[in-house]
Amino acid sequence: MAELVFEAVQEAYGGYCAECLTENIFTQGDTRDELRRNVVEATAAVFFDQPRPDRIRLHLLRDEVLSVA
After folding, report:
1. What percentage of the chain reaches a pLDDT higher than 70?
2. Which residues are CB-contacts of 46 (< 8 A; sequence separation ≥ 6)?
3. Count of domains in the chain?
4. pLDDT score for 27
């Protein structure tokens, strides 16, 4: 497996959540750096007995609300 893609969002209360799009992997972190570490750790745990992906892509989604009034 060459690459895993995670979709990450910033929660309203603070912190971040990330979910893998192709595997059943979900993790969170209080900061972006903590989220990055947790994504790598969670991936290693899932693939502990098989080859790990070469890369992990962390795609941060931002949802903005713009006032037009």
Report:
1. 100
2. 23, 24, 25
3. 1
4. 97
* Residue 14, domain member (yes or no): yes
Other CB atoms within a 10 A radius of the CB of residue 28 amount to 17
| Mean pLDDT score, 29-35 | 96
C-alpha to C-alpha distance for 41 and 45, rounded to whole angstroms? 6
Find out whether 53 and 43 touch, Cβ atoms under 8 Å. yes
Domain extent at residue 50: 3-61
Decide: 45 and 4 in contact? Cβ < 8 Å.
Answer: no
- The reply to whether 67 falls in a domain is no
Pairing of strands 16-20, 3-10: antiparallel
Confidence (pTM):
0.85
Residue 69 lies in a domain: no
